[in-house]
Amino acid sequence: MATVRASKIKQLLARHRPGTVELASWLAAHGIPHDLQKHYRKSGWLEPVGVGASKRPGEKVSWEGGLYSLQVQGKVPLHAGALTALSLQGNAQYIRSGHEPVYLFSPLKTTLPSWYRNHDWGHPIVHIKTAFLPPELGITDYSLNSFTIRISGAERAMLECLYLTPESIGLVECYQILENLATLRPKVLQELLEQCRSVKVKRLFLFMGEKAGHVWQKRLNLSTIDLGKGTRSIVTGGVFVSKFALNLPEELVNL
User: Fold this and answer.
1) For residue 88, what are the domain limits?
2) How far apart are CA 91 and CA 89, in angstroms?
3) In whole angstroms, how far apart are CA 234 and each of 103, 130, 151, 219?
4) Are 234 and 246 in contact (CB under 8 A)?
5) Is the model more confident about 13 or about 182?
6) Residues 143 and 194 in one domain
7) pLDDT digits (tens, 9 = 90+) for 127-145
8) Quick check: helix, strand or coil at residue 149?
9) Contact 139/151 with Cβ under 8 angstroms?
10) Total domain count, the chain
11) Between 20 and 30 A from 193 (CA), which of 10, 58, 217, 249?
12) How many CB atoms lie within 10 A of CB 141?
């Protein structure tokens, strides 16, 4: 029995990716049942992260490593988006510093396991459940040292920021970020905007893109993008922008 247990743990360690978590369900599906997992924890081969998840003892695991395990082992339809994705892709100079929230997006009925929600990652985890964009559209791979996670490409991440404005992310901050995104891909933007279900997001994006004067804005076909009807008041009062039927803060309009 001891030889079998030693063999199984060697197999586990051989396929382990440093900095990631091992889900109990995944281990069980690969021949390491829960009683054997318990033995490994008692023996010091595994260290619990929370109920249903373990890691290598002494190994530091980041929120990215936990997300990798959820995506790959747990098959959870979850990705890093909005400011988090923009920061990972090199736009951190435009984003607030400090222990900022990690924004994770998923379809409406997705549940984030308690071990991930409750673990201290050094950043608060904000789980956004929404259907305002198709789940896989505009998603890209982001590689770290030993693993890859799924995150929003810059185009989708910008729309996600606007989805969260003005409650979680300021309108002016959104514009300042978009102002520096001069290399967004028109083809990707076109598809995202055509399939986006939020009129607020689409109008704000087009208003800001036009205000910033980016080349990609001029390559969009607005005739196939449904901008809805009626006025959208982002703030009470403010300045009315007739072209996009938006009531916006004066400080944004006059930037």
Assistant:
1) 77-226
2) 6
3) 22, 19, 27, 26
4) yes
5) 182
6) yes
7) 999 999 999 999 999 999 8
8) strand
9) yes
10) 2
11) 249
12) 9
The beta-strand segments (E) located in the chain are: 22-23, 47-50, 53-55, 79-80, 102-106, 125-129, 139-143, 148-152, 232-233, 239-241, 246-248
Least confident among 80-94, 123-137, 213-227, 229-243: 80-94
Asked if 12 contacts 59 with a C-beta cutoff of 8 angstroms, the reply is no
Q: What's the pLDDT score for residue 97?
A: 55
Whether residue 51 is found in the same domain as residue 153: no
Quick one: what percent of the chain has pLDDT higher than 70? 94
Enter the tokens of residue 69. Answer: 């395990």
Residue 133 and residue 220 in one domain: yes
- Residues 43 and 143 occupy one common structural domain: no
Per the prediction, the chain carries an average pLDDT of: 92
Predicted model pTM: 0.92
Nearest to 129 by CA among 161, 105, 164: 105
* The pLDDT value given to residue 93: 53
Of 151, 94, 106, the C-alpha closest to 130 is 106
| Model confidence band, residue 1 (pLDDT cutoffs 50, 70, 90) | very low
What is the DSSP pairing of strand 148-152 with strand 232-233?
unpaired
Do 195 and 135 share a structural domain? Answer: yes
Six token digits for residue 237: 């009062």
Closest by CA position to 129, among listed 162, 103, 102, 106: 106
